[in-house]
Fold this sequence. Notes:
Layout: H1 3-11, H2 18-30, H3 35-48, H4 52-64, E1 79-83, H5 91-100, E2 106-109, H6 120-124, H7 136-146, E3 148-151, H8 159-169, H9 177-190, E4 195-202, H10 211-227, E5 231-238, E6 246-247, H11 249-262, H12 267-284, H13 290-302, H14 305-316, H15 321-325, H16 327-330, E7 335-340, E8 345-350, H17 352-362, E9 378-381, E10 388-389, E11 394-400, H18 403-413, E12 417-420, E13 430-435, E14 438-441
Helix pairs in contact: 1-3, 2-4, 4-9, 5-11, 5-12, 5-14, 9-10, 12-13, 17-18
Amino acid sequence: MNPYNIIRKKRDGKKLSADELACIVEGYISGSVPDYQMSAFLMAVLFRGLDFEETAELTRIYLASGEQADFSDIPAQKIDKHSTGGVGDKVSLILAPLVASCGVYVPMISGRGLGHTGGTLDKLESIPGYRTNLTLTEFTKQVREIGVAITGQTETLVPADKKIYALRDVTATVESKPLICASIMSKKLAEGIDGLVLDVKVGSGAFTKTVEDALKLAELLVQVGKQHNKKMVALLTNMNQPLGRFVGNALETAEARDFLETGRAAQDLYDVTLALSSWALILSGIAKSYPEAKKILKQKLANGTAYRKFIEMVKAQGGDAKKLEKLEEVHQARYIIEVNSPRSGFVKYIDTELIGMLGVELGAGRKRLEDKIDPAVGFQILKKIGDYTKTGEPLLLIYANDKAKGEEIRDKIRCAYTISNTRQKAPDTIFYIVNEKGRTRWEEE
Length: 445
């Protein structure tokens, strides 16, 4: 058994055995399988796929590659949330402390940006001092003490995924559903959780562009989770425009901070966050119904409990809470450049993936593993789908530290907007819910 034959077998569309999957993954972790062979394997999987048994086995191999957190001594429920990735998606920064403020333990292992999508860790690292490299001991201790932690993978927690995750980002293999599933579920299972709420994005800024593709991914994730006896629910949410009003690491972190502090946010961000958070409370048993869960969450936002929990988490992980309050000044872009509408009319379509990719070009993400992120740069979305704009009115603002680069992106990003004479209906924020009952169209209860 050797990597060449395994790559060829998958390239030809054949099913791999558990031993073959273990051979190539474990070989890559040990160093006997080089980057170029693992890249070829990932591309073969992207094109040929893995069936459920292969996906479940790959998840198990990832999970078995390292240590796992153990919270079995905590009687309360441990619930986490994960997003499949989007543009402007800062929900995790809000949801984790919000749900924890309700009495749920939230152990959250997060990732960095992949392709055109932003990463939770990159956003949190815009807070001076915030540590995203907690050891497993530090991680479990903090969750026990304050009920929440958001950190990255440790060297010992699912190291197989950590190494392969980074390679996927730079080999155009991010979109593979089996690889997404194995990556997400291995990390989440290693957290010692009882249940998981999934935010499966669909649309132009997501890896799954169609509702049917997103449903298949959601069902795969839920199925793998149920196989490991976890409570599972997935919501399909709209990524046909950036979520909220900002795209960029410090900009999004400040937007999340303001949401927790004031209880107010852009409507789509508010709706998605409250829906996912409500289901976290339902899975935990704290709330028996969706209306009850929303009522509890609104109280925690209104009385400041959620914001205080956020600050408590930031301080526990070394973050400077005073600088968080003035994050826009700490990371202030040198130039703010307007992108003006070429005509009057209603915003019909936003190429959200293009906005994400131009964010990477601006410095908000990575093209190569070694690239450094500029936390100050990004976009402020002024016009969203359905909004009216006049000729010359700004559609969005570019926050740049390189004027020439910002102006270059201005000329490109204008193409992301399609303006129509006809008013567009405000897009739905949530399409479906997937759980043990199967797939059901979303109707807020």
